[in-house]
TrEMBL record:
Active site: 384
Top-level taxon: Bacteria
Catalysis performed (reactions): cytidine(967) in 16S rRNA + S-adenosyl-L-methionine = 5-methylcytidine(967) in 16S rRNA + S-adenosyl-L-homocysteine + H(+)
The protein's enzyme class: transferase
One Pfam family linked to the record: Methyltr_RsmB-F
Organism: Ideonella oryzae
SUPFAM superfamilies documented for this protein: NusB-like, S-adenosyl-L-methionine-dependent methyltransferases
KW Transferase (keyword) present: yes
Protein name: 16S rRNA (cytosine(967)-C(5))-methyltransferase
Function: Specifically methylates the cytosine at position 967 (m5C967) of 16S rRNA.
GO MF annotation terms: methyltransferase activity
Subcellular location(s) of the protein: Cytoplasm
Taxonomic path: Bacteria, Pseudomonadati, Pseudomonadota, Betaproteobacteria, Burkholderiales
Enzyme Commission (EC) number: 2.1.1.176
Amino acid sequence: MTDAAVPAPAGPTLARLLTLTARAVQAVRSGRSLTDVLAGVPGPVRPGVQALSFAVLRRLGAAEALRAQLAPRRPPPAVEGLLLCALALLWPEEAPAYPDHTLVDQAVTAVRKAAPASAGFVNAVLRRFLRERAAQVAQAERRPEAVWNHPAWWVERVQADWPDHWQTILGQARLRPPMALRVNARRGSVADYLARLHAAGLSGQAVGGPGWAQAIVLDAPVPVERLPGFAEGWVSVQDLAAQRAAPLLIGEGLPAGARVLDACAAPGGKTAHLLELADLDLLALDADPKRLARVGEGLQRLGLRARILAADARAVDTWWDGQPFDAILLDAPCSASGIVRRHPDIAWLRRPEDIPALAGIQAELLDALWPLLKPGGRLLYATCSVFKAEGQAQIDAFLQRRGLPSDCVASVSPGHLLPLPDNQHAPSASAPVARADGFFYALLGKPATSGSAS
C-alpha cells in the first residue's frame, strides 16, 4: 500500500467513501488485514477509501476513547464504524482534511442510508463533540491509547525497550512516511535517474552513504505509474531501512555464482536488490505461494532471474538439496512494529501473545538455517521490528544456544534502526519525519575453519 493525503471527494461522495471506510476499519478491528480488505473495494473508489482508512486508523485509539465517552452504550457495528471514522477525522488537526460541517453532514447522510433510525443519534453525538471538543479531547487523552493511537500493551513494550525514545517512536507511527526509491544498478546511476525525475516534473534527493548507494527520497510521494522507467525496471519503491539488507549481506563481495538463500523472500524487494548488485545463484524461498508470486513478478519487471520455491524454510528436509550456501538472508516473520506508519492496521491487528509466538518462529528459523551455511559464509538476520524480543534479544539467545566454542561470530552490523527524525525530538503534527522505518539487522559469520556445515 502506498500512502496518500486524504482526497477531496471528486467523484464518489464523501458519504460513500465514509461508508466503505467504516466497513474497512471495522474489518481491521475484527482481525482482517487492511490490504486484504482494500482488495475487495471497487477500483474507482479504492484510493479514496485507502486514504481515509489510513487517516482513521492513525487516530483509532482516540476515536475509540471518544466513542466510549460520548456513546457509552455501543451502537450497532455499521453505526459504530461510521461514528469512529467521523470522530477520528474531527480530532483537532493543524490542517483538517474536511470542514467540520461537511464531515458531520456526510457522516449523517451515510448513517441515514445504512441505519436510518440511528441518523439522529449520530448527528447528536458529533455535534456534541464539536461543542465540547476541547474538554472531550482532554478527557480522552487520559488514556494512552488515545494519546499514542496504539494499544496500551504496545505502548508499554516500546517504553520498556526504548525509555529514551519511546515517545518519538510512537509519534512517528502517526506520520505519513516519505517515499524512497532504489535505482536498479544494472540500468543506471542515481544521477541518471534524478535527471529522469526532473524531466518528468518530479524531484528527489540522493541519500548516499553506506548501504544507500542506489537510494533516492522523493520530495513528495507519487503513484508508481508516474515514475519514469518503472515498468521497464529502472527503479523500485523500497524504504531506506530495507535497502540496507543487500549491501550488508554482500559485504565486500561474493564470488560470481555464489549460492545464496533468501529464506523468507516475499514480496521480493530484498531478493531483487541482491541480484541487482551481484551475479548470484539465488534461491528465493517463502511459505506463502500467493505472496511468492509477487517475487516472480518483481524480478520479471527488473529483468532478473532466481529460482523460486514455495516451502517452509524450517522444514529443511522438504526443500534443501544438500548443498550449503555461501550466504543466507533471513528476513524473518515479525510483528512489523517498525513499519506501522506504512501499515497503520498493524498496531490494531497484533496481540500481546503474538510477540513471543513470532520470536519462537524466528528462533526456529535461525536454528534450522544455520547448519545450511558453508564455513566462511554469513547469515544476515533481519526484522522490520522495533521490539527487542525480535531483535537483539533474539540474536543474544541464538548465540547462547550455539555455546562455546562457537561456530558463530557476530560481525559489525547496524543492530536496531529506530524511526527517529534527524533531530530526534518528540514529534508533533509538524515534526520532521524519520527517513527510514524501524528495522533490526544482525550479520553472523561462520568461521572458515569450521569443520562442518552443522
